[in-house]
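the two lines:
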Amino acid sequence: MSRFKNLFTALAAVVLGLLAGAVFMALSGSNPLAGFYYLFRGGLMNMERIGNTLASATTLVFTGLAVAFSFKTGLFNIGASGQMLMGGLTATAIGLSVQMPRMILLPLIVLAAAAAGALWAAIPGFLKAKFNVHEVVATIMMNWIAYWTVYYTIPAYFKGTFLETESRRIPALASFRVEWLTNIFRGSYINMGVFLALTAVIVIAIILEKTTLGFELKAVGFNRYAAEYAGIHVPKNIVLSMSISGILAGLAGATYYLGYAVNMQIGVVPSAGIDGIAVALLGANSPWGVLASSLFFGILHSGKGFMNAMTKVPPEIGDTIIAIIIYFAATGVLFTRLWERITRKWNKEA
Amino acid sequence: MEYIVEMLHITKDFPGIRANDDITVQLRKGEIHALLGENGAGKSTLMSILFGLYRPDAGVIKVRGNEVAIHNPNVANALGIGMVHQHFKLVHNFTVTENIILGMEPTVGPMLQTRDAAKRIKALSEQYGLNVDPDAKIEDISVGMQQRVEIIKMLYRNAEVLIFDEPTAVLTPQEITDLMQIIRNLIKEGKSILLITHKLKEIKAIADRCTVIRRGKVVDTVDVADVAESRMAEMMVGRTVNFTVDKRDQERGEAVLSIRNLNVLSSRKTQALKNFSLDVHRGEILGLAGVDGNGQTELVEALTGLRKVESGSILFKGRDITHDDIHSRVMAGMAHIPEDRQKRGLVLDYTMEDNFILEIYGREPYSHKGFLNRKAIRDHAEKLIRDFDVRSGQGALSMGRTLSGGNQQKAIVGREIDHDPELLLAVQPTRGLDVGSIEYIHKRLVEQRNNGKAVLLVSLELDEIMDLSDRIAVISHGELTGVKLPKETNESEIGLMMAGIAGAGGTE
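prediction for all of em together
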């Protein structure tokens, strides 16, 4: 029942967001139908475009899961960006300095990035558990620490060949891109991260629904007093939840900087960390919902450039649509009421 | 006969349950009309309809003979219907006057003008014998006084019909007597009153007529003077009610819990327990009597591990558990029916089946190597729901928050007793419950005792302590004032001990 309700809410938010986007397109003097045609064509028209859509979605799946997982435990991890940066920095550092067979190197990079993300999130988790420091404040501060750490480290140790503001190019050995996948998708950004992301969805779904760990974490999230009463160690669960969330964000960093991109730039807070909040909201914090909403946002991300090239619609319309959808998803309670009214009428007539 | 409010053939459905089924209640002008029913019988739903919080699916409401549609509480207010809620809706750092004018603030230009309002409140207070100080802050006055503020709030808005929702649930015996007098004064001044309650004594004492509701339907409307209390209880529950607790005599066993010189701080870092020592034995119910806030909460929290102990020790089954964590105490055989069922007792957004394994999800067969076994969890829930008569819309899959208070409590009691504990800490186990549930829970507590287990009963209801306990311990200001046998003492002696005057010559 509640699953249908969530689906209805999400779809209503998407439809209303697209409608609002249509209004904006019309206002900017373009034909909305043409705009949407090119927006979706831009995301899906050939294998390369589909590959790019999937590559964008990969990062969003990780950050979306990170945010959704923390939400489930009653925590708001707004620091996915910082955890992603630290995961990316660790991955970049290993990729640029370690030489070993790829079969060992890639798993090592994945583990190290996960550990870095976990550590970056565990610190605010610990502060929350021990001193009741609000995690929103602490994770935002950790974002800036990560930002400046990258800002210092990359030029100091991994300076690029031509530019001061980016790292050297990641060697093919350490890249998540693989030839067969690149070939199928005609040279797109798609990489092994997409499989890692799918695995993460499944693992997180299992943890939340089937395990005692998920049972504990959700109990703490819904009612920490009852959890405490029942003998569940609340501080431990807060740190654990943040760490798992951080692992996911760390993996976003590894797959983004070593897969989607070819090097790491300084002075950029990755927007995927914040977009993850939107993904989690639209996906109702469920792992499968996160997967679906990442794909949708992935299409918008990779299609907006094409839309801009083919019509006069500015690419910012794509971001506007995303923003409006977030608003509608956040005010989902309106749709929930609508849904209840519809089902009640339906039940009465049946 | 002139009716001021009539609710005719009201029907209201919620998913999976018909809360009100063709209910008719007619309130005469100037009468006190009681609405009697168990928790979950549909009283609150009915009153929420009258107050405009829900819309009925069928039926008609008439006020002073005219059919009305009450869309929201403002309409109800305009019709002269006011409600004194069970949980007061007051702003704590506002004065009485500020609370009463909230929402209809009198102004001079842009400035708030409270002087006239305060005068009128003072006058109302004198007219009805309420004795309320308009300038007092809510946080500084007692619960009983806060309730009077709610009453004046209604009178200030010219309410003719006052609905009282379980008004005595939060009051001390003395405050209850005062409230009864206030209600009589209201009637004298021409008001009409609907009294929602499940306390038969109060109905008998004050109400003119009584409508009994059971499972969403009206059983009957009777003149209170003509019907005995026991008959009303029968109508409410649907069977004969046994008020006395059947308890066979038995020898108590060895001490299972020994509290030694316990010192515990309250949340405000004041001394809540002072050198507190007490033993609880197998095969006995030890009742702990005391006025609310005299260290009972801190004692229970220290025993269960929710609160840190400053000094002293707790021995459970001969082992020192003073510094053990909560989980290991549960595993060692300590069960706890918490004081606040919604804060501690249940995860309201979990299904009942998940709530039933809240402490034991880690045990076989409910999980294996970290993975939950849904079938075992479901079977466990269905067994408890059956054994403890927990009623809900969707059985094991009902969300905790959808159950009525009584059924939530039965679920918690069932869960804790099902652990087969050596020691059961029952804190206010029947607070706010109806006769049927109270009788049931009492029977279960006695059963524990009869099976040779220990029960520590902490209650603010002296009747409950006197009826159930094998021994009565009294706590005052965090100190033990004495231990008595029920047959060697009486309510007034216990009352004195609760006030801190030590009993003459302890039983132990």
